Amino acid sequence: MVPPRLVPLLAQFDFARERLSARLAGPVVDSGDGTGTEVSPMTDEEYFWEPVPACWSVRRRSDGPGPRATLLAGAGAWGRDAAPYPHPWPPPFTTIAWRLSHLGEMLALRADHTAGSHTLNRDVHPVPASASEAVAAFDAAAAAWRRALLGVDDDALGTVGYCTYPHGSDPEEPFIDIVWWVNQEVLHHGAEIALIRDLHRARRC
Fold first, then answer.
1. Which of the chain's ends, N or C, has fewer CB atoms near its CB within 10 Å?
2. In whole angstroms, what is the distance from residue 99 CA to residue 57 CA?
3. pTM of the predicted model, to two decimals?
4. What is the CATH number of the domain that holds 178?
5. Which residue, 180, 177, 185, is CA-closest to 160?
6. 205 pLDDT band (50/70/90 cuts)?
């Protein structure tokens, strides 16, 4: 059984995940009032689109990091713009590619550090090189995180450091707070991604 205090958080995660997946891949997405709105699958042009100068994005490793970034995070031929703390201020505007890569990595690694090997980090996590790869990676990571959640009991929810994810405050937080935080990440980055898709479409009008 799902612990009672996890039930609303799991439902919120499912809603955010399903809405973002539909917004990225179509063919329809809930418009917010229960009716369906047609949506085309995201293209590579949208995935890499930089609405303003000096965006952070996903880049070929051979091209090096973008403006104000000092490294390309992740594994493989592509990496995500990054910099060690303290991060640049004001924060760079990030593309859909950056945001979706960040979400997929966070979910996959937290799943591993909750119910997997407890060894993965962003240095070994591949960075998607296209829109279709990124959508598939997000869906797989979200499914892994959900499976991890279904394996916890109420004691685990209250345990500080139950998730050993190395790139956040997880070792100092009760696991239920981490579950709440992950939901907020999916909700707010999902809304940002949807807005960037809307702006990309509107520029052609």
1. C
2. 8
3. 0.94
4. 1.20.120
5. 177
6. low
